[in-house]
Amino acid sequence: MSLDLSRREFLQGAGAAGALTLAPGVFLHAKDPEVPVTDAVRWGMLVDTRLCQEDCDACVTACNEEHNLEDLGRPETDAQWIRKLTVRDPLGGRTISLPMMCQHCENPPCVDVCPTGASFRRVDGIVLVDKHTCIGCRYCMMACPYKARSFIHENLTEQLPHAPRGKGCVESCTMCVHKVDAGENTTACAEACHKDGHQAILFGDLNDPDSEISKRIQEFGATQIRADLGLNTGVRYQNL
Amino acid sequence: MSVASIRYATLDAGRSYWGLLAVLAGVTLVGLAGFLHLEHEGHWITGMNNQVVWGIPHVFAVFLIVAASGALNVASIASVFGQVTYKPLARLSGLLAAGLLIGGLVILVLDLGRPDRLIVAMTYYNFKSIFAWNIFLYTGLLAVIALYMFVLFQPAFARWTRAAGTLALLWRLILTTGTGAIFGFLVARQGYDAAIMAPLFIIMSFSFGTAVFMLVLTAACHGSGRVLGDALLFRLKNLLAVFVSAVLYFVLAYHITNLYATEHHGYEAFILNFESLYSKLFWIGQVGFGSLVPLALFYAPRTRTCRISTHVGAGLVILGGLIQMYVIIIGGQAYPLVLFPGMEESSSFYDGVVASYIPSIWEFLLGFTGVAISLIVVVAGLGALGILPEDLSDPKPAG
Amino acid sequence: MLSVVALTAFSNASAEGLGPFIPKAKGEQCVEPTQVMRERHWEFILHQRDETMYKGIRTTRHSLKNCLECHVQPDEEGRFPRSSEMSHFCTSCHVFAGIRVDCFECHADRPHEAYSIIPRHSRLSLNDLFRRRSVQ
Ligand code: SF4
Ligand code: SF4
To answer: What end-to-end distance do the CA atoms of chain B give, in Å?
Structure first.
């Protein structure tokens, strides 16, 4: 992991240099660290539930490691940014499995209800909590339709440099914003799923019609969970 | 009839007065010690978790805030609707409302994950948030009450009483609507997404506030050797009886509307089928002991003119109110969120199952602190200011 | 607990008779002149905090992370000081000045190279073992 970090730092230094070739076929378009993010992009993820294996939780493990979400042996209060959800149709018993995390809504209820504005949506579509202004009222947790958020119930001491988190604040999936800003163009969960050979999670720019994620959505369509709420989620699902 | 003809007096600060204050201060101190421990350790020591994020502290806090609004009933009836009988009690009404509100707010603040950032809560506002609006409404109500009390206390401003009373009335109606909307706006939760939440909270406030008012009034009269006339007490009781029935009616309307929509049947069964804890609390606590028993006490020929049963009835209304809050706040969260309507869900994050919640002593301590602080405000106010008329006995000289 | 630390700081400082103990940093020169940093470092960090949080601006010059990269260095045994210890750059001065900061309640208190030596899964501290509560 230290390797990971230094690579990131290195890329940051080389940010202005633009595209870098890391491995054959993998291009990194590191964002210039001086340039603010814009709404020209909208980051999102696409989950193909047919490719998602019920007994696999590589994405969950990867997320926990990436952000050092510790297992304190208290499942009711331990933070979970992403979880595997099993959905069973009582008629016929068909079961699907899928990763559930913050859906990065365009009209996020968590942002609407937050009294201090700590819950916010970055212009590139990533919904974050500014833990400097979060007062820990947990109203956003009441409002989120996906149960995507966790409250930090105890003192933490082993936070990683790129993933600040601490007692008394609410947090949720950041769509690996540190990776996105470093131009890695992926998330820990998508990467892990890819590595395991399932390729059920695809990260990309929903605004770019030529991105793979957009093309897949154009071709096969994709659904929002609880589309009835009209939140225009940034995480979409196929074959629900 | 002039306000000036009523003579007010402070409570005599005797032994029992200071004793009561000391007890309340003791409760507050124990509560604050508990708070320090909670703040040091984090919320894992409480029963609250990532499923049930609001617990006992919120039950107490919302109850107190709602009751605060209702405690102003007497003031409104006296100052806005011109009921002479209640005029002498308007000051107590204002003081009690302020006390309950302060107690409720203290609990809310102490339960925050970052209570040290109170200043952030007051300097950063998201105006789309009903919660942020409520912060204004709550502090605003304190200011409005202060204004109202000022007018009551200054004979020179007597002609403004009605205006100030009307402002307070409107303000508290909006405040209770806002409090109900905190829940009513939660579109994704099965138990909350209902416009009726706001009026339900208003009528609940009338009921709880009046019940608290009756008990505080009786205690204050008893403690200061004043005679509280039967007529006044039973008049309040009759008012309370109407409010209790109205709450029942709104609860009925809420559940019937929900039962009409098949989508809500799961949640309705959860609350009504008498199997879950929340359902038992609903039927036995809220409906039985909190509403039907008091109504029986208030109306039955044998008890309707009995002071003791009146007080027991008011106490039960308060207990039932707390239970109702518990059912609404905790029950609404314990019932699983529906991500895929019609499907069965399961996960490591308690999807698809009723969340467990076992309240801890720390949460109760926070709740008791709030109640104690409310009462400290009231008792201190009664001792420092001429809040209570010297004479509250029945044959009232025409003002 | 903090007062104990404060007392220690005070006695340290008075023993040397001057100011707080300032651990050695890596590198030649800070990102700003020392005096400017003394007076305004919190402004820089605060400004950068919001730039990064809301706009994704991740320049390193004024970032807290960057401060730690130079100012928090390992001792002879290769151990990095934690923010709870007086040998930590930020803590040393802040305790001396009597100004509590809560940065490290959430932020890492060491440069990233310190993290390569933490074993991944030995995360339960003794404290946690005592606190462990069964939630079956
Ligand atoms: S999924 Fe929940 S936490 Fe994420 S943006 Fe939507 S409402 Fe907010
Ligand atoms: S817990 Fe924090 S982010 Fe969530 S609503 Fe409250 S202040 Fe906002």
So the answer is: 5
